[in-house]
Amino acid sequence: MADKHPEPRRSDGQGAVARLVAAFADLPGIGRRTAERLAYHVLMMPREPALEFAAAIRAVKENLRPCGTCGNLAEGEECEICRDPKRDRGLLCVVEQVRDLLALEQAGAYRGLYHVLQGRLAPLEGRGAERLTLESLEARVRGGGFREVILGTTPNVEGDATALLVTERLAGLPVEITRLARGLTVGASLEQANREMLADAIAGRRRWAD
Predict the structure, then answer these.
(1) Using one digit for the tens of pLDDT, what is the confidence trace for 38-60?
(2) In this structure, what CATH number is given to the domain that contains residue 27?
(3) Which residue range forms the structural domain that includes residue 89?
């Protein structure tokens, strides 16, 4: 027997809005109400800016890839930082993720090069040393003419274990190994620190063994 009170069908427009809300809600740190507000904002945008927003997302997914040298995001073989002749090529800052690199760049206190590990040690989550870009890091330090390697890993147990692994991998190479000053909040990632904290951490870096 047919249901006397079937659920009303959504129109195509309602379905599209629901998909947009769900897409925003899948983003980290975005709750349902925030997702609804973002979806409503997109709906209220003029057509051209909205399409430019969609095109920007498509361009990021289709055109960006890891830099062949440092692991940063790049549109070609190398990123803008690696190609920049004004960077100090004797300094190499090792970070866990691209977002950490972006945080340091926004602070504006560091003008050297980077190496992105693409993660950190987390055995309980199945992330071991084989998941990190340690081989390419060692190869860069061996042939790159660096005088200093700065460890920019997160100041927590996993980040320190990762930094120790990097130090062991580079042991015996003619570079000074330093770490960011502990003005950073313990357990906080670089992206969570403000510009002043990151600038102080760069300026106050010290030898890894100290």
Answers:
(1) 999 999 999 999 999 999 888 88
(2) 1.10.8.420
(3) 81-207
State how far the alpha carbon of 103 is from the alpha carbons of 57, 98, 165, in Å. Answer: 21, 9, 23
Sequence-distant (≥ 6) Cβ neighbours of residue 96 within 8 angstroms: 116, 117, 118, 119, 120, 152, 153, 154, 159, 162, 189
Cα 149 versus chain centre, distance:
19
Model confidence at 8, in pLDDT bands (50, 70, 90)?
A: very low
User: What are the tokens at 143?
Assistant: 């042939």
pTM: 0.71
Please check whether residue 171 lies inside any domain of the structure. yes
**Same domain (yes/no): 48, 86:** no
Q: Is residue 115 part of a domain?
A: yes
Angle 134-143/157-169 helices, nearest 10 degrees?
50
**Is residue 86 a part of any domain in this protein?**
yes
Q: Tell which residue, 91, 95, 180, 164, has the closest CA to residue 129.
A: 164
CA dist list (Å): 182 to 18, 205, 206: 45, 8, 10
Number of domains in the chain: 2
Give the separation between CA 175 and CA 6, rounded to whole angstroms: 72
Domain-embedded: residue 6: no
Which one-letter DSSP state was computed for residue 115? E
